[in-house]
Each structure stands twice: as structure tokens, then as C-alpha cells.
Amino acid sequence: MSQYQNDIQAVAAIKETAGKTWDAINPEYAARMRAQNKFKTGLDIAKYTAKIMREDMAAYDADTAQYTQSLGCWHGFIGQQKLIAIKKHFGNTKRRYLYLSGWMVAALRSEFGPLPDQSMHEKTSVADLIEELYTFLRQADARELGGLFRELDAAREAGDKSKEAEVQAKIDNHETHVVPIIADIDAGFGNEEATYLLAKRMIEAGACCIQIENQVSDEKQCGHQDGKVTVPHADFLAKIRAVRYAFLELGVDDGVIVARTDSLGAGLTKQIAVTNEPGDLGDQYNSFLDGDYVESADDIANGDVVVKANGKLLKPKRLASGLFQFKKGSGEDRVVLDCITSLQNGADLLWIETEKPHVGQIAAMVNRIREAVPNAKLVYNNSPSFNWTLNFRQQVFDAWTEEGKDVSAYDRAALMSAEYDESELSVEADRRIQSFQRDAAREAGIFHHLITLPTYHTAALSTDNLAKEYFGEQGMLGYVAGVQRKEIRQGIACVKHQNMAGSDMGDDHKEYFSGDAALKASGKDNTMNQFG
């Protein structure tokens, strides 16, 4: 017996116990409302989605073709529409998640207005967005099931047993729109206690996966900007443990932690690590400091700092900001040490922020990491901060040059030019972009591919196109041809925006509550009927 039928029977039993005062209660209506509200709390969601992620991670370990993907979201409606589209086009949500970007929270959700990605926004807005995303995903479930319930009633009214059985099977096997969210906690918004408190709020809102980076909280920068400052490993590991304790306290025992390293592009540190003996983690961190070895106090100026490193006295280079500088070219070695250390101390997945999308570069680091942790897996930012077209055209140019192929028809510095769009080189570059995720999953250990800011850019692009047409010569045709007609032709549910906002669900409830006396919005004069 299905859960739906079980709920009908359970409510019927409660109704019988309650007596005549419950005569107006329809057990099937109550069962429908239960089905439309499968997840009662954010913790229900976190536990459900953590299990999905763990199963997906195991599937990837067995077959790298089973990598996962997500797109970044800055509003619940955007996340909802992604999942509705995924179900429409692919039939299920398997291996497809959502990403919550701290960059987009800062740029689009702060009460201060648009902010750079520097952890200046209200930290509670991150947890609020998680809750909002899941509110919209749960509403998508309720809306879809509501449509099935109306189909079921119509089949019964028509006496069509075959159709009734078909619709009932869809109800019994309904797949939720609720999927895992990988949620960005930046550098933890403070010390380890602050990180723990915010992680709890995020998990309570539904997060099964939290991504944290090894930058200094008060100096945090976007991973694709300059001026990044990392912290010693002990500080970062304390925050990883804080997130793990938050998961365990709330009963999400298989919660997922993504440890992000920005060391590849970060040339600065605010602190010299504490070290107790040669070769310990603090000593390894300090070994990357740029500086000069000194022989005596005469080599030390007022305010200089001196540490013992590699058995010698090292005077690290300190900038006017008080920050210390790492050796040039040490970024990749620091990334490898960061990643191994994080995985050996409680992290589940890695995130290496890079300056370009290059499978070979990523694979070189992952192969070194896997010498210590064989099943190391990455989450990778397929960032809009990269010029994908230029990067891949240059990669093809360089590969062809190395192979001895004639590239005299191309100017490497000008490969972004539209004149090359139909060229053999550009076709090959696009082929490599198309296969990038598959190739990187196979060769570079990338379990999850995401685009951080896709809807930030799509919203701007579509708005620009609409404004150009609507306020120009096309007038209203700019909207009709450019938006509404495409919605109708492509079967976009939002063309019936009243239904998407919950009007039909409200009518269902009014009928449950008021029977024939219900004043419903979906009558013959509802203009949404024009859309069939």
C-alpha cells in the first residue's frame, strides 16, 4: 500500500475516534495535504539530501561518468524554476543540485545594497536564502501534486478507471523537487564559534553540505580577485571541526563538508603559524614564507619578525599592511598541502580555486593529493569569472603549436575576435568546452561541477534584450515575441503565473475548507484560461 493510501486510512481512523465533530473532514483531502508537505522541517531536508550526496559520491567513486552538477541561485524562485526545468527536460533530478553562492548573496541579498564578495553582508542572509530556496522547492512539489490530484478527481468523475490508475501511480511515485544544496559559508564569518553558530542556522534551514574556505574572515576576497590572505592550517581545521560538530549536534551525521583552498592565487598570510617542532604543520606553513635568512641581530630592523625555519633564522617579508608574503611559485605546493591536511582532518570534498579552467592543471594537483588520499574528490567552480572562449581558444592554439600544426592564420592575443568564431580552431575549442566537465570528472577527480553566478548573468542578458525591444521599435511585440510566445511554445509553466504563484492550490484548500461555498479564483473569467 502506498504512503498516500496509508495516510488516508490513518486520518480516517483519527476521524472515527474524534466522532461527529469531525464529520466535515475528508481523510483523502488531509492525505493530499500531507503529500504536498513531505518535509516538515529543514532538518528533515538536510538528512534526506545528505543521504543523496553520500550515495552520489559512492557512485562517482565507482564510475567517474556519474559526476554531479549544479547552478547557483540567489532567489527561491530561480532555484524552483531550475528544478522544474530539470524534471521537465530530463524526467528526474538525479545528480543535479543547487549551489548557494556567497558572491550572489553579497551582490543581491544584502540590506546594504550590492556588495563585493568580501563577507560584508549579513551572515544570517545565507541561512535565510537556504530556507527560501527550500520553501520554493516544496511549493513546486505541492503545485505539481495539486495538478495530479485534480487529474485524479477528473478521471473518477469521468469513470475512467485506466486514467485513474495511471494518475494514482504518478502520485504514489512522485519525485520531489528537493535536492541537495551546496551552501557557501565563506571563511566562516568570524572565529570558530561564529562559524559553528552560523553552520547550525544553515543546517536547520536545510543545508546538507557546507563549503568553507581557508581565507582570513576579515580580509576575505572573492576567489578570482587579488589580495587573498590565507590562514594557518590549525585555524582552518578548527572551523572544519566546528561545522562537523554542528552537523552532529543536529543529527545530520552524514553531513558533507567541502574544504576550499584559495592558496593557488593567494600570496599573503596574516599570521605566522605556531610550530612546536621541525616538520609539523605549522613549520610546513611557515616554510613557504618569503624572506631573508639572517645571521645576527644586526640584520634585523626595528619591528622585524624572525622565525626559525629549515633550521635557520628567517626574516619573513612583511608588507606595509602588516601581512606576510609567500614565496613566488609556491601556490601549487600550498594547495596540495592544504587539501591533504583538510581531508585527513574531517573534510569530505575539496574545492581548488583556480585562475583558469584547465584540466591538465587541476589533474596535476589532484594526482599529487591522491598519493596521500586516494579517493580525493573535488567540487569545481566553472566560473563566469573565466573567459571560457578565450581560454580554450588559447589552449587549442598552444596545443596545435606544440604539435607542429600551422597556426599562422591566428593571432593568439586576439582569439576572442568574432572573426574566428567559425574557424577550425574555434570549433575545436568549443568541443573542448562542451566536454570539459566530463573530461575533468574523469581525469581530474571532479565529482561536482557548478556555475556560481549563472542567473546573475542570464537575468542581465534577458533584461537587456527585452528593454532593447520593448522600449524600441518593437514595442509590445518585443515582449510577446521575445518572451510570452516562447514560453507557450517551450511549455514554460510560468506562462500561467497565477498557477505558479499558488492560486490553484488556494482554490483546492478553499474547497476542502468551505465545500460548495468556496469562492474560487479559477473560474471561467480567469484570464489564465487563455493559455489552455
Number of helices: 19
Count every beta strand, where a strand is a DSSP E run of 2 or more residues: 14
Q: Please state how the strands of the largest beta sheet are arranged side by side.
A: 1-2-3-4-6-12-13-14
Beta-strand content: 5-15%
Termini distance? 35 Å
Shape: globular
Cα-based radius of gyration, to the nearest Å: 28 Å
Describe the model.
By secondary structure, this protein is of the alpha/beta class. Among the domains are: 1-35, no CATH class; 40-184, no CATH class; 354-452, no CATH class. Helix content is 49%, strand content 11%. It contains 19 helices and 14 strands. The strands form 3 sheets. The chain has an 8-stranded parallel β-barrel with strand order 1-2-3-4-6-12-13-14, surrounded by 9 helices. α6 packs parallel to α8 (192-205). The longest helix is centred in the N-terminal third of the chain and has 35 residues, at 124-158. It is globular.
Quick recap:
This protein is of the alpha/beta class. The chain contains 19 helices and 14 strands.
Give descriptors for this structure.
532 residues; alpha/beta; 8-stranded parallel barrel; 3-stranded mixed beta sheet; 11% strand; globular
Task: Reconstruct the topology from this structure.
Blueprint: H1 3-18, H2 27-35, H3 42-62, E1 68-73, H4 76-90, E2 96-100, H5 102-108, H6 124-158, H7 161-172, E3 181-184, H8 192-205, E4 209-213, E5 229-230, H9 233-249, E6 256-261, E7 268-269, H10 281-286, E8 291-293, E9 307-309, E10 312-316, E11 324-325, H11 331-343, E12 349-352, H12 359-370, E13 378-381, H13 388-403, H14 424-434, H15 436-443, E14 446-451, H16 454-470, H17 476-490, H18 497-500, H19 503-514
Parallel strand pairs: 1-2, 1-14, 2-3, 3-4, 4-6, 5-7, 6-12, 12-13, 13-14
Antiparallel strand pairs: 7-11, 8-10, 9-10
Helix pairs in contact: 1-2, 4-6, 6-7, 6-8, 8-9, 11-12, 12-15, 13-14, 16-17
